[in-house]
C-alpha cells in the first residue's frame, strides 16, 4: 500500500500557477493522510509484538518466506499431540499383543485337552466293547480290589460302632436320671429310704463306669474313622490317578500302533515321531504312579495292622471290664492307652455332641 502511494506521488505532476508557485491540490492532503495512517498502523503492530511476545507453548513453525499463506504454519502443539498419540497407541498395541498371547495359550490348552479327552474316550469305549487292548497288572489290581473290599467292611464296623456309642450314651444318660430320681425318693419316702438309696448308688456307679467306657469307645471310633476316611481315602485317590494314567497310556499306545501300520511318507513319519514322544511321556507318568500305588498299599497295610491291633485290644479290654463290673481294670485300660476323659462340668461338648 505504501509503495503504491509513493509511486503515485513520484509520478504525479505538480502544477504551477501563473506566479510560479505551487498550488495546493486535493491530492496533497490525501497523500499526507495516507502516510500518517500507515505510520500509526506500523507503530501499533510494533507495540503489540513488544507487549504480548510469542507464547512458547504456541510457537509456530513457518514454512516459506515472510508474508506466506497460513497453510505453511504448523503449530508445535500439534507435534506434541502427535507424539503423545503415538506413545499411547504403542502401549495399547503392547497390551493387545499380551492379551492375544494369553488367548492363544488358552486356545492351545483347550485344544490339547480336547484331543486327550477324545483319545481317552475312544480307548474307554473300545475296552468296554472288547475291541481294544489294555495294560493289565494282575497282582496290583488284586491288591486294589482287596483294599476296596476292606474299606467297605471297615465302614460297616465304623457305622455299627457309632450306633453302639449313641445307644450306650442314651443308656448312661437314662441311668444318671434314674439315679437322681432314686436319690430324691429316698429323701421323701422314709419307709423306703434304704431301698431307694441302694438303687441310687448302684445307678450312679453304673453311670460313672459307663462314662469311662464311652471314652474308650469314642477313642476307638475316632481311630477307625481316621483310618477309613483319611488314610484309605488317600491311597484310593492315588489309585484313581493311576487308573487315569493307565487309560491315557493305553490310548496313546493304541494311537501309535495305528500310525505305525499306515503309510511311511514324510508327513506320516512326523506324526509318528510326535506320537512316539507323547507315548513316552504317558508311559513315564503311568510307571511313576504305579510305583506310588505299590508303596502306598504297602504302608497302608502296615499301618492298618498296627492301628487295628491297638484299637481292638482297647475295645475288648474296656467292654470286658465294664460288663464284669471291674471299675479298677476299666480305668487301668484307659491309662494304658493314654485316654483322658472329659472332666464333669466342662464347657466343651462331648464327642457325640460334636457329631
Q: Number of helix segments?
A: 8
Order of helices and strands: HHEEHHHHHH
Fraction of residues in helices? over 70%
Largest sheet data: 2 strands, antiparallel
Whole-Å distance between the termini?
A: 110 Å
State mean pLDDT (0 to 100 scale). 77
Shape: elongated
The fraction of residues assigned to DSSP E strands is under 5%
The order of strands across the largest sheet is: 1-2
Structural class: mainly alpha
Query: Would you identify the regions where 5 or more consecutive residues have pLDDT less than 50?
Result: 1-28, 49-80, 351-355
Radius of gyration: 53 Å
Strands, total number? 2
From the structure above, extract its key features:
355 residues, two-stranded antiparallel ribbon, 2 strands, 79% helix, disordered C terminus
Description of the molecule:
- The longest helix has 68 residues, at 193-260.
- The protein has helices at 2-11, 26-52, 76-128, 138-188, 193-260, 266-323, 327-336, 351-354; strands at residues 60-62, 73-75.
- Strands 1-2 form a two-stranded antiparallel ribbon.
- It is mainly α and 355 residues long.
- It contains 8 helices and 2 strands.
Amino acid at each position: 500500500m505504501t509503495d503504491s502511494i509513493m509511486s503515485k506521488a513520484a509520478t504525479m505532476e505538480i502544477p504551477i500557477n501563473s506566479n510560479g508557485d505551487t498550488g495546493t491540490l486535493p491530492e496533497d492532503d490525501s497523500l499526507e493522510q495516507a502516510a500518517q495512517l500507515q505510520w500509526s498502523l506500523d507503530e501499533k503492530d510494533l507495540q503489540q509484538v513488544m507487549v504480548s511476545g510469542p507464547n512458547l507453548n504456541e510457537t509456530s513453525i513457518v514454512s516459506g518466506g515472510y508474508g506466506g499463506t497460513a497453510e505453511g504454519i504448523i503449530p508445535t502443539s500439534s507435534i506434541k499431540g502427535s507424539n503423545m498419540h503415538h506413545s499411547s497407541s504403542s502401549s495399547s498395541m503392547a497390551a493387545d499383543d499380551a492379551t492375544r498371547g494369553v488367548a492363544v495359550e488358552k486356545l492351545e490348552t483347550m485344544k490339547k485337552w480336547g484331543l486327550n479327552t477324545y483319545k481317552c474316550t475312544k480307548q474307554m469305549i473300545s475296552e468296554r466293547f472288547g475291541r481294544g487292548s489294555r495294560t493289565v497288572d494282575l497282582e496290583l489290581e488284586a491288591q486294589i480290589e482287596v483294599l476296596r473290599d476292606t474299606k467297605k467292611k471297615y465302614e460297616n464296623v465304623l457305622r455299627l460302632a457309632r450306633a453302639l456309642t449313641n445307644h450306650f450314651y442314651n443308656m448312661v444318660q437314662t441311668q444318671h436320671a434314674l439315679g437322681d430320681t432314686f436319690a430324691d425318693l429316698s429323701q421323701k419316702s422314709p419307709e423306703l429310704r434304704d431301698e431307694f438309696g441302694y438303687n441310687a448308688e448302684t445307678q450312679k456307679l453304673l453311670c460313672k463306669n459307663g462314662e469311662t467306657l464311652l471314652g474308650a469307645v469314642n477313642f476307638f471310633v475316632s481311630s477307625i474313622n481316621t483310618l477309613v476316611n483319611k488314610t484309605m481315602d488317600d491311597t484310593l485317590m492315588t489309585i484313581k490317578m493311576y487308573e487315569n494314567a493307565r487309560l491315557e497310556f493305553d490310548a496313546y499306545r493304541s494311537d501309535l500302533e495305528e500310525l505305525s501300520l499306515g503309510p511311511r511318507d514324510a508327513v506320516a513319519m512326523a506324526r509318528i515321531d510326535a506320537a512316539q514322544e507323547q507315548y513316552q511321556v504317558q508311559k513315564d507318568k503311568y510307571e511313576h504312579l504305579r510305583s506310588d500305588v505299590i508303596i502306598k498299599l504297602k504302608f497302608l497295610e502296615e499301618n492298618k495292622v498296627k492301628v487295628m491291633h491297638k484299637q481292638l485290644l482297647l475295645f475288648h479290654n474296656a467292654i470286658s471290664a465294664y460288663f464284669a463290673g471291674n471299675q479298677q481294670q476299666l480305668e487301668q485300660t484307659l491309662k494304658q492307652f493314654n485316654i483322658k476323659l472329659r472332666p464333669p462340668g466342662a464347657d466343651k461338648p462331648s464327642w457325640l455332641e460334636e457329631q
